[in-house]
Amino acid sequence: MSKEITSRAEDYSQWYNDLVIKGQLADYSAVRGCMVIKPYGFALWENMRDALDKMFKDTGHVNAYFPLFIPKSFLSKEAAHVEGFAKECAVVTHYRLKNDPNGGGIIVDPDAKLEEELIVRPTSETIIWNTYKDWIQSYRDLPLLINQWANVVRWEMRTRLFLRTAEFLWQEGHTAHATKEEAIEETKKMLDVYADFVENWMALPVIKGIKTESERFAGAEDTYCIEALMQDGKALQAGTSHFLGQNFAKAFDVKFSNKENQLDYVWATSWGVSTRLVGALVMAHSDDQGLILPPRIAPWQVVIVPIYKGEEQKAMIDVKAKELIASLKDKGIRVKYDDNDNARPGWKFAEYEMKGVPVRITLGARDLENNLAEIARRDTKEKKSISMDGLPEQISDLLEEIQQNMFNRAKHYRDEHITPADTWEQFEKLLDEKTGFISAHWDGTAETEEAIKDKTKATIRCIPLANKQETGKCILSGKDSVQRVLFARAY
Amino acid sequence: MSKEITSRAEDYSQWYNDLVIKGQLADYSAVRGCMVIKPYGFALWENMRDALDKMFKDTGHVNAYFPLFIPKSFLSKEAAHVEGFAKECAVVTHYRLKNDPNGGGIIVDPDAKLEEELIVRPTSETIIWNTYKDWIQSYRDLPLLINQWANVVRWEMRTRLFLRTAEFLWQEGHTAHATKEEAIEETKKMLDVYADFVENWMALPVIKGIKTESERFAGAEDTYCIEALMQDGKALQAGTSHFLGQNFAKAFDVKFSNKENQLDYVWATSWGVSTRLVGALVMAHSDDQGLILPPRIAPWQVVIVPIYKGEEQKAMIDVKAKELIASLKDKGIRVKYDDNDNARPGWKFAEYEMKGVPVRITLGARDLENNLAEIARRDTKEKKSISMDGLPEQISDLLEEIQQNMFNRAKHYRDEHITPADTWEQFEKLLDEKTGFISAHWDGTAETEEAIKDKTKATIRCIPLANKQETGKCILSGKDSVQRVLFARAY
Question: Which residue from A minimizes the CA distance to B157?
């Protein structure tokens, strides 16, 4: 069949691309660096989005929508922010096209030049804080707990489907608070929400930590992150939550009168996850036969494939299938019945294996005579024949079991790939041979961090929260260190 | 209080703006023509979006996501389409900013000019059909029934919150079919879905019809529409569904092999509704005290306001309120309990009236002693005291009644405002005095249609589906006509 995919051992990067394309998650587009999210990939993203959205709402947040465009001058208002974000971005300079008077098709109308260029948002702190200025006068207007689901654009030079695209979909939370403590609490709360989501819905264990100054979000006082590990031993930043201090309030002059009737600048946070998480999901769980999707977010949790000869057998199976589908749906299980006549069962098996559907139920005419169905789980590839009686309950339990197994498997791999290094030689050897996170002492300077990155391409992924304090010597400089930090090569 | 709004009689247009701003639906932004959709407005849009999304899925459609940017050359590929859409749009010409070497802040980097300009999508037919080319080979790949929720940009010169903004949110369905008949059936089916949604969720009666050639979507063979009537007697196009023939398939060379193994061009439809519907909702139902939202899409269906003196009364009311909220939520009713201490009940009453919450329940300490609560409905402003026993059931029924009453009221107004005109004098008089739809004979030519528009600003809103055929004389030219069409001034 044409669906063959490159194995991980042969070419991990090509394996990933094959999965995304042949698993029907996304496609390249005619626009450099932008992708098309295909229906199957979008259904997966919808399930992720809906679960997260509910978690945001359950923690008191509301959604809103801010403009796609940001006036160029806004980006300059926060000094660190402009350095980080005003580089590679899409710039709108004109607002009209016209027919070329010389017959050259349509051209940009030179008379329709904008007075001030507009930037397609790479992130929305500036436009949002410019708006909050009008919304916040008093402590009674606080906190503002607002989230936005949106598309953003960063003109990346090297792009990869889901992992790094010029346009991507994400959510960005932007909250405003009366006190520093409350803002920090919010920053941490949202990190916990992200960790909860990624671990319990995506079945992907994460390490919660804090970024070093060099890796911080441009404009933040502190950036908290969750870091996950992919099957090739590279780390992937799965979400970030930023404590922005009063930086954006100062940049956009957002003051409020506090309970003592004194004017003060408002405290801020922002936090986001994106379609990049789909890439993480693919890389963390899949195998050489295709995707393996966690039941809680899989577009279809169960696929039913009938095997029959002739109309009579088909009719009999249809009756059983309909009953089964109804009971599965009653349990809230997302099920697809594939009785498409144009494809053989074997082709379908490979197709749903490729697409990572957690459970396949095969209804064969002969088995059904004995009241049996065959169930196959995608994560372990185990198959067994079981009685049709009580099947929905068993499937429901099995889906839970698969979810848990996927998490355990990923956690086992991750835990096996956190290795301490005490010498520079160990450090380099681990990076090249075992890969994964390396726990090592660092002298706390940006210079050393940079030197390690230059030599090895490894970065400090995070300083884990509640990190053990222990004295030691920096892996590179040999200077005194008070704690180990986690290094890795990363996506 | 500061919340006073201009009355409809005084200034309809200002009344509308007041409602949108003071009702907390949206706000102006720093970017010309772009608005901020505020949390309350966005919650309303989310309810509308979710209801529509379910209807799309129930009719077999799936969601996907296509790039924000469209290469300039794509717009030229369909001749009529480029005329309609390649005019006022946001053009991305560069992909980088840099620090001005002369110290003038950040400037567009002249070295980062795109080889081909990118257009921020005004609609996505071109980029989508360019993609479908890769997805469709055989009749087995058809139909494709894909929808996208997205932001689009049209550089409008005169903008109004929700009704006409440079950036707006919408959904755009793009389907591909093997036969002309199937595509036309899809076009009509989606028109029915829109009519069902607008009438049964937004409580707004619509007229289904077909556009004249001049009013057709640029690139369509036929444009079907639903037209609604606002309280000032102007019409508003609430949704369109286009039969695109093979125009885009030909422009992007999308062919498929049919069952007879012959190559043919694919048949297409597209259909969309946008955040403009929020504007329609506001204009159709609200009054001089504020918004009136239909229960089925209102962010809060019920607000509970406690009235008390002192902690003891408050504690007693809290207990009753919690019970009530739990039973309302059990019934799937969206309820807000406003026990905010900072505002007086009278202020709250006005606030929720402004926001159009369908039902207000007042829990007063004295009433509660008699097991009574006061309920006030927003649509008729009726108030009555009723027993707390069975209150949830009564509220549930009342919400249904309000939904129905709002529809009936809008339908009564609409039906009263469809008036036949048989002479030009009548026509002009009706337009200026009675307003609404005018049913009149038209000779079927674009010239006459244009002349009527020039003279009166009235356009042909649609030729109603299943229109009665009757001979007559064109209202302007006096030439023979076979049917009446609906004219109106419109948003």
Answer: A95
Write down the architecture of domain B302-413 according to CATH: 3-Layer(aba) Sandwich (3.40)
**CA dist., res. B170 & res. B276, Å (int):** 9
Domain A418-488 fold is: Translation Initiation Factor IF3 (3.30.110)
Looking at residue A76, what is its pLDDT?
A: 84
Determine the distance in angstroms separating the CA of B393 from the nearest CA of chain A, rounded to an integer: 26
DSSP A60-117: T-EE-B--SEEEHHHHTTSHHHHHHHSSEEEEEEEEEEEE-TTS-SEEE-TT-EEEEE
pLDDT digits (tens, 9 = 90+) for B203-218: 999 999 999 999 999 9
Residues of B in contact with A98 (CB under 8 A): 87
pLDDT at A89 over 90: yes
The region that residue A245 occupies, defined by phi over 0 for left and psi between -120 and 50 for alpha, beta otherwise, is: left
> pTM of the prediction?
0.96
- A453 DSSP assignment: H
**Best CATH choice for the domain A302-398 from the list 2.60.40.10, 3.90.1640.10, 3.30.70.660, 3.40.50.800:** 3.40.50.800
Chain center to CA of A116: 34
> Is CATH 2.40.30.260 the classification given to domain B12-70+122-285?
no
3-class DSSP state of A459: strand
Q: Give the CATH fold of the A12-67+122-285 domain.
A: BirA Bifunctional Protein; domain 2 (3.30.930)
B24 min Cα distance to partner chain A (Å): 11
| Burial group, residue A404, by CB count within 10 angstroms (0-12, 13-18, 19+) | middle
- What is the ipTM, given to two decimal places? 0.96
Pairwise CB contact (< 8 Å): A31 & B120: no
What are the residue ranges spanned by the domains of chain B? 12-70+122-285, 302-413, 418-488
CB pairs under 8 A between A and B: 184
